[in-house]
Design a protein that fits this description.
Glutathione_S-Trfase_N; binds glutathione; four-stranded mixed beta sheet; Glutathione S-transferase Yfyf (Class Pi), Chain A, domain 2
């Protein structure tokens, strides 16, 4: 491990659900890419599960339900911390979204987006994660997550030049690799959309507006990669997907929550053209 490198905590609730979607509830913050994965798969599969949205600004008290669009109608929590405390009073990790909540048991089932999208797919017929494609979906998902999706965070939160340089190189070699892959296929694993595509999309949607500037991933912008841009536009145009992308919330979250990166909390006005909206 390079000194000064950002390390994401491991998700701590990784259970399988008991019962179906009607017994469960989803907590997300649309600002968060891992939350958006779950929101997208919920939307495109037509899954009927309740959802609550946390406010994009997060202070030391963590994700909050502040009223208006940001309410928890199931438990009336003011802070997502309460969901963690009532699931495991000894929980000491960071309170993260997304969270899959079991209403009957009154506890968190799972707080790992990569698991939650599989559960949602199983509840709706399993077409996005077919058995004969699983190995390929997981394989492509692993390097994309490591170098690109978590890589932008490692670049942004690096505490040394060396850690940043390594993360930056990984982000742009992953972008080149994806660009090449998409030269002769429409989606990551072929002609059909799978979970690999929905897991990736939230990072692409945030790239030019946030990661390029805020996380110093300024090698190239998404709009400079023709295949990736075509791919992003295609996925973004699928029914229900655009409703899960709240650009204002995304920008508010990143540019106002990370004081060490942007202490004046000024939100950049651009980009003027994202190329996919
Ligand atoms: N492994 C988790 C990661 C979730 C995660 O890191 N979420 C961030 C928001 S983008 C979070 O809630 N962070 C809270 C914190 O660090 O305090 C997943 O993919 O579900």
């Amino acid at each position: 491990m390079t000194s000064g490198a950002f390390v994401r905590q491991k998700s701590q609730f990784r259970d399988r659900p008991e019962g179906g979607p009607d017994r469960h509830h989803l907590y997300v913050a649309l600002a968060c890419p891992w939350s958006q994965r779950a929101a997208i798969v919920r939307a495109v599969t037509g899954l009927e599960i309740g959802i609550s949205y946390a406010h994009p600004y997060r202070d030391e008290r963590g994700w909050a339900f502040t009223g208006d669009r940001f309410t928890d109608d199931v438990n009336g929590f003011a802070f997502l911390q309460q969901a963690y405390d009532s699931s495991d009073p000894s929980f000491e990790g960071r309170v993260s979204v997304p969270v899959l909540w079991d209403k009957e048991a009154g506890r968190i089932v799972n707080n790992e987006s990569a698991d939650i999208v599989v559960i949602f797919d199983e509840w709706t017929g399993g077409t996005l994660y077919p058995a004969d494609k699983r190995a390929e979906i997981d394989e492509v998902g692993a390097w994309i997550y490591e170098a690109f999706q978590n890589g932008v965070y490692r670049a942004g939160f690096s505490r040394s030049q060396r850690a940043y340089d390594e993360a930056f190189a990984g982000v742009f070699s992953a972008l080149d690799r994806m660009e090449a892959l998409l030269a002769d296929r429409r989606y990551l694993t072929g002609d059909a959309i799978t979970l690999a595509d929905w897991r990736l999309l939230p990072t692409l949607l945030r790239f030019d507006a946030v990661y390029h500037t805020h996380f110093r991933c300024n090698g190239r912008r998404l709009i400079e990669y023709p295949n990736l841009l075509r791919y992003t536009r295609d996925l973004y145009a699928q029914p229900g997907v655009a409703d899960t992308f709240a650009l204002d919330e995304v920008k508010e979250h990143y540019y106002t929550t990370h004081d060490e990166l942007n202490p004046k909390r000024i939100i950049p006005a651009g980009p003027l053209d994202l190329g996919f909206t």
